[in-house]
């Protein structure tokens, strides 16, 4: 009834599968992994999970131990081999990248994952905050990393662990029929996708879920495939995988994913989880609304398809029926030539949106608007499209005058709230300004009547 996984090369068991991995590690004396925010924002708790392609940096503060059953976990204490520092530790020390040291283990583990993936861009350090603002030497350490040696022990595949067994209060079904049988037996169960929202609830407000059902191993939710006239994205596909495998296919999606949380969050957060929470500031929803996405919903009773625009019914409320979940998202391949997405937030990265927007506009040969989809987050109780303005644009010339008129209408289209991220007036201004920005950035000067 415990969770068996490999920790720094040695099999271990955790008796409380719902316990966050961070607290399990610290209770075992592995205190290099630290608690800074308990929300996945600071990186102090970063560890690495082995994947078929290498390693992924993840936030251990948001990861229940049951979710790593059968997996390999590496912490900062497990890097040095026989008293010899790992190359990422040597690089950070040589660059003078550690000051007070509190954040250092998290940076080391992000560097560790990047060392084996071959990535050397700043994105791999995202989600790690240095309170001493010592980013220059940390970035220098990243740039200086060599390629792994062929005899690197971390490149050797470990012996397989036994298949995960039953765990008290934590289930990891591998198919939809198994999932629906569990939900029938435990109707009070909380579904766990990536855990980046559920984990925050458990940590910050003390939410207790007697039964957790992980969706991470449900095979039917993991597909990312060509479905003829659409790309079909399983609800369990992580944002990092979406970023890798669909790069260049939907430019507006590329725009948004570049500013969507940080790498350790994207390594766990899923497409279905982000949409299913129905957050009015969720970053995927405006993009998928602009791309005219359809949802595949499934339950033990059957399946149905629903336009994403009909999915959000109110604040944090959806059209999901009891026992139903998102199985996949279908993104039509045929998209307008003009598509782009924007996110405005207090920080340039790893922050919640003040306003997000995504636009898709198709023009006729004569330069008139044939179709327009203008979607926003952060301006209403749900992610929303500006349907009246879309209709008014159809048939109009794609010109600065048309766009100015539409922008004025957009500023009056919603009644956003004021909060710590921005005033209602600021948000209303952004709604129009972002559409004007879209026009000038997507339309060459010679093509602007």
From TrEMBL:
Q: Identify the Gene3D superfamilies for this entry.
A: 3.10.20.30, 3.30.465.10, [2Fe-2S]-binding domain, CO dehydrogenase flavoprotein, C-terminal domain, Uridine Diphospho-n-acetylenolpyruvylglucosamine Reductase, domain 2
Pfam family name, one: CO_deh_flav_C
* SUPFAM superfamilies the UniProt entry points to: 2Fe-2S ferredoxin-like, CO dehydrogenase flavoprotein C-terminal domain-like, CO dehydrogenase ISP C-domain like, FAD-binding/transporter-associated domain-like
Q: Which domain of life is it from?
A: Bacteria
The FAD-binding PCMH-type domain, residue ranges: 162-336
Give the Gene Ontology MF terms in alphabetical order. Answer: 2 iron, 2 sulfur cluster binding; FAD binding; iron ion binding; oxidoreductase activity
Record's keyword terms, sorted: FAD, Flavoprotein, Iron, Metal-binding, Oxidoreductase
Q: Does the keyword NAD apply?
A: no
PANTHER family xrefs: XANTHINE DEHYDROGENASE
Name recorded for this polypeptide: Molybdopterin dehydrogenase FAD-binding protein
